[in-house]
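Hi there. Long-time user, first ticket. I'm pasting a complex I've been working with (about 732 residues overall). I'd like to know whether the download I got is complete or cut off, because the file seemed smaller than I expected. Thanks.
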Amino acid sequence: MKKILLTVIFALSLLLVGCLPANNGNGDGNGNGDGTDNPDEVAKTLFNERLQFLDENNFELEIKVKDHQALKETIVMMYFDGDVVKYIDGDYEAYYDNSGSKSKMYEKQGNTFVVSESNFKSSDLFFYGFEFEQFSVNNETSYIMKSDALASLDGFIGLHEAVDSIEVLQLRANENHIDEIIFDIVVNETTYLVTLTISNIGQVNLVLPA
Amino acid sequence: MKKLFITIFVSIMLLLSLTPNTYSANDFRFDILTHERRYVHGLEHIRRTGLLTWNEEQKEQHYNYLGVNLKTTDYNIIASDNYRPFEWGMSNLRVHIATAQQRFPQLEITAGVNGDFYDINNTGRSTHTHIVDYEVKHRGIGASIHRSVIGFTTDGDMVHGNPSFLGQHLNILNEFRELKKRIKIDRINQLPQNDLEVAIFHTSFEDEIPEDYIKVVVKASDIKTDANGNANYSKGQLDYKTTEAVKVGEKSFILVGKMFQDEDLIQPTDTLLVQELLSNGFENVRHAIGAGAPLVLNGVVQHDYFESLPSNNMAHFRHPRTAVGEKEDGTIFFIVVDGRDIIAGKNGVKYGELGELMKLHGAVNAFNLDGGGSSTMLLRNDETGEYDGLNTFSDGTIRSISNGLLFARGNLEPTFYEIPYPDTRASYEAPTGLYVDGEGVFHFTGNNENMQYILKINGRETYVTKESIPLILAAGTHEIQVRVKGNPNYATSPFSDTFTYNVHNDDVRAILDLFRNIAQTN
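Hi, the file is complete. Here it is re-exported in full:
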């Protein structure tokens, strides 16, 4: 009887062992490719990959500001192509050339562009400086900025005295890259919802006005 | 011989001393008790109290003066009312100003006074001629020695007297209010008697207008009738043309004549304005209202006329009064004298006293306007944005009146000038290079030879004469276009491309500025 029980236990053990996955990889059976099997490292790698496009700095950015009280939406567009950035607000059009030591602004005035030294303040990095450790992974395509990391945005919002804080910042991603950054921003004690939509990565071609 | 000279001299002196005083300026005296003078919006405002002596009577008086030179400033005088379509009406001068501001958005209305006498107990119709921006809304009572018409041309000339009437005329105005054609109306509610005649039919004609005649059925936007029920101002747009038999419908009128077989003569966008054609110096009058008695003519106070009036005439009694006057240099001024409050020293004036007061302030010509409770003088208060009453309203409150005269700053849009028909003019080219700078000033490249433009913002059009215009717009998206205005030689240009201008509130601008910061440092 004892032998029978030992045989059954052994058989069940074999069965259980047979049910274990082949390895501890990322589920595709090929491991994570960097020789590590830590889930955090996997998620961090994926996060960094999804922000990697910022190195090339070639993308389109739609900025949508929603006023909850007035139920009004404001949409402006920015286009990034390396050192050149284009800003469009209605028919207002401006280019920024950051290739030199000082940024130049080309502002459209009628049929010509007027060149001036940009008078905007030097900015902190905002999404250019996002790091994995600042976020909690919400699900495979969404990250929430940790509340204690929101202070890292103070340098960005501190550029304008009317801006009080940024709250509840979320990144949303598709398979390849971050495609939305959504946050509440408090200005003069009023909360606005800002949605930044990233698209056309690598497809923006800007030429500075002659 | 010496004795003879002395006798003659003494006789002459005796004769002079015994001659009774006649009414002359020497009899008039105004001893000032208080006096304030200030300039507001470029207008001279004087507030005075004092003792007015005339014809051996002395009374305390309180009055206000407002004046400006129309020749040397950008001021105009415009006529005001608040008549609703198809009727007359009464509103107080503050409402008149609001209405005028809507009619002429390019003008800045700073002050005004009440105008003509009117049908206060019924329709609110003004007694005499009423013209607003060349539109003769009321032809008036015709020639009268007791009444005058005060008109103002685009150049700031004051015209006074009584217009003569050349009959009703059809004015065909295109969409730019240019006069395509002016056609005399030969018959009213009667069929044309030949191929050259034109007739107008109103609802008072109850029968059918027979077939075969060429008829232009006009959908009226306004019809005004005089005290006898005659429609002497009819305005509208083409509804349809027909040769069928028709009856005149409500709020419409019908033009009949062979000349309307010309398909191009009347377009759906044209305005059809049937009104009196004025003459006797009033041909180019742009704004006009009726007035009462002349107070000063060619520098002479009209005492002889006042004395000729019956003893029960209002001229001989003291009341609050409003008057308009012109000076030799082109200054137009109004005076409103308070009255009906003797305890407060507000006695009001007789015509003779008012005439002397107008002359005292330099009037070469001056006219009495409606007075009593109608006397109103308003001046815009920049701090509150409201129009403050300068005079004391003798009713205790501001009275509803028929019309008024307003001081309005800015450029009057050229309209009603004749253009060729058929229109063979070449068009101006549309402006280019539209943009709004960081200060919110709109700029464009227009036409150096004709700096007259129509600025359209979100569908609302305004006449402007500059190529840089500060915009004060609410937060939101604004569609801006501009076109060069036509003249007798060139037609109005097409509109420019649309410039979309987003105005952000301070908060949103702060957010967007954060991102513009990113633009230069990525």
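A couple of notes from our side: Chain B touches chain A through 35 residues (CB under 8 Å). The mean pLDDT of chain B is 94.
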